[in-house]
Amino acid sequence: MMTTTRIEATRLIPGRGDVIDNGVVIFDESGISYAGPASSAPESADRTVIKTETVMPGMWECHGHFLGLYTLSITEEMATLRPQMAAMRVTADANRALMAGFTSVREMGGMGTFLGRVIDEGQVVGPSVYASGGMLSMTAGHGDAHGMDLDAARAIHSRHLGEDLICDGPDECRAAVRRALRLGARVIKVHGSGGVMSELDDPYLPQFSLPELEAIVDEATRMERLVGAHCHGKRGIINALHAGVMTIEHGTYLDEEAADAMVETGAILVPTRWIVEFLMTEGDKRGMPAYAKKKGQEAAQHHADAVALAVQKGVKIALGTDIWSTGLWGRNAEELGYMVDAGMTPLQAIECTTANGPETLGPQAPKAGQLFEGFDADVICVSGNPSSDVTVLADPDNVTHVFKGGTLFKSPST
């Protein structure tokens, strides 16, 4: 028999729309049956009643990595770390994410396809994981390991991520998409520009030709997967949009032309301000290589300006942090403060991490991220008022209750 839960809150934040004072949410494992003002809420005899300050949808992390690594010397650590160790670490990271109120994670390269399956089996406690498996990279691209021979780089990808997704030319790119699908990918991740944490490439320059990107998008679209592109430089962003990519990750050198193109195509920006700030303030403690520090310093101010421009231009934004390291998961909601710094209201920032999250998955999206009748019962209770101060959500202790799919995973008694 399903348990019905009734949450009575000082305020109900629906994810999209205005705050409802004296709100009630009623749900069970099958979904939400009521969300609205207490004055219109139905009564039922058999229910669990929870009283809280704020009730809102479970949050979405739309760009994280379950890699089980500790340092920023990513290639070197992956070359020596047994993947079994990494896999055990990411189970703890998944738990940290859920306890911080993140009921869903769009994992853009890592062990997420495997982790999501064991979470669904009930063997591990964690969020719903919608993963890309690996990350498509051209040879010498951001996802290649430049400091070792190519065969070794491919072997590391296969050993830790399940498949080698280094590919060149439209036919190889199609085959790489299929290998990602073979892992169970719910979204396809491609490196559309150089990156900060790779040694020899330039974040400003595009990667993959337009025909290659078009082949990737075509293959993914046939299988009802959306493509997300890591893009720092403007040329990479424009190429990705021309190919039909629907989410741009990072967007460091986004300018007015690129922002207007995103608005026109309906593409979503996942800006990941958190990782930029983390690398500049804490990167040295995590072994950030000198080449990455130099590139990161160059990109940091451009990135802050680009995100502010995107907010001003009305680009749709979804929250992502680019958290990759074990032990950092749980800090994901710190990104909300950076969104407010970029010009959003607190409610707009909350919409980024709730209602906008599922839209980064296209046809693979669940009916989640909002508190309305018929939506999945991913619900959290919060001490404090994040609609006036989003930093409340950055402290996992303020998230008092977490329901995923109507099942309680966190409460003051657990």
Key descriptive features of the protein:
single chain; 414 residues; alpha/beta; TIM Barrel; 2 domains; 12 helices; 15 strands; 20% strand; globular
The whole-number mean of residue pLDDT values reads 95
Succession of helices and strands:
EEEEEHHEHEHHEHEHEHEHHEHHEEE
Read across the widest sheet, the strand sequence of neighbours is: 3-2-1-4-13-14-15
Q: Supply the CATH class of the largest domain.
A: Alpha Beta
Termini gap: 22 Å
Q: CATH topology of the largest domain, anyone?
A: TIM Barrel
Number of individual domains: 2
State the CATH superfamily name of the largest domain.
Metal-dependent hydrolases
Low-confidence stretches: none
Q: Can you count the beta strands?
A: 15
- Give the strand content: 15-25%
Walkthrough of the structure:
- The protein has 414 residues and is of the alpha/beta class.
- It folds into two domains: 5-58 and 370-410, Urease, subunit C, domain 1; 59-364, TIM Barrel, CATH 3.20.20.140.
- Helices cover 35% and strands 20% of the residues.
- The protein has twelve helices and 15 strands.
- It has helices at 74-80, 83-99, 112-121, 150-161, 169-183, 210-222, 234-243, 256-265, 273-282, 290-313, 334-341, 346-353; strands spanning 5-12, 20-28, 31-37, 48-57, 59-64, 102-107, 128-131, 188-191, 227-231, 247-250, 268-270, 316-317, 379-382, 399-404, 407-410.
- The strands form three sheets. A seven-stranded mixed β-sheet has the order 3-2-1-4-13-14-15, with no helix packed on it. The protein has a five-stranded parallel β-sheet with strand order 8-9-10-11-12.
- A hairpin with a 7-residue loop joins strand 1 (5-12) and strand 2.
- Helix 7 (234-243) runs parallel beside helix 8.
- The longest helix has 24 residues, at 290-313.
- The radius of gyration is 21 Å and the shape is globular.
- The two termini are 22 Å apart.
- The model has no long low-confidence stretch (mean pLDDT 95).
